[in-house]
Amino acid sequence: MPDTRSPTPEAVEVIFSSEAIAERVDALARRLLPPGSISACRPIAADFTAFECPKEFVVGYGMDLAHRFRELPFVGRVVRT
């Protein structure tokens, strides 16, 4: 595990799949890292929306399933056969 006392600023960009996961990671980071060393951006209202995503598992445009399908140039629904 890296030394979290390093004075060197580092940036990490993470998008969490649910608010519950984001809250757990935030709580853990606040316990492990020095006060004032982290900040979090919460969801904001978007000015524009391209489409509504169904409440189904989707892949493509960077979203993946076991590191597969991330490179698809579209968003597709995962269907079990």
Distance between the termini: 41 Å
Described by strand count, sense and barrel closure, the largest sheet is: 2 strands, antiparallel
Number of helices: 1
Q: In the residues, how many domains can be counted?
A: 2
Tell the overall outline.
elongated
Weakly predicted, low-confidence segments:
none
* Assembly state of the chains shown: single chain
Structural class, judged by helices and strands? mainly alpha
Helical coverage, percent range? 10-25%
Give the strand order of the largest sheet, numbering strands 1, 2, ... along the chain: 1-2
Order of helices and strands: HEE
The overall strand count is 2
Beta-strand share of residues? under 5%
How large, in whole angstroms, is the Cα Rg? 17 Å
Mean pLDDT: 74
Structural write-up:
- This protein is mainly alpha-helical and 81 residues long.
- The chain folds into two domains: 1-44, no CATH class; 46-81, no CATH class.
- 17% of the residues lie in helices and 5% in strands.
- It has one helix and two strands.
- The chain has one helix at residues 19-32, and strands spanning 58-59, 76-77.
- A two-stranded antiparallel ribbon has the order 1-2.
- The chain is elongated, with a radius of gyration of 17 Å.
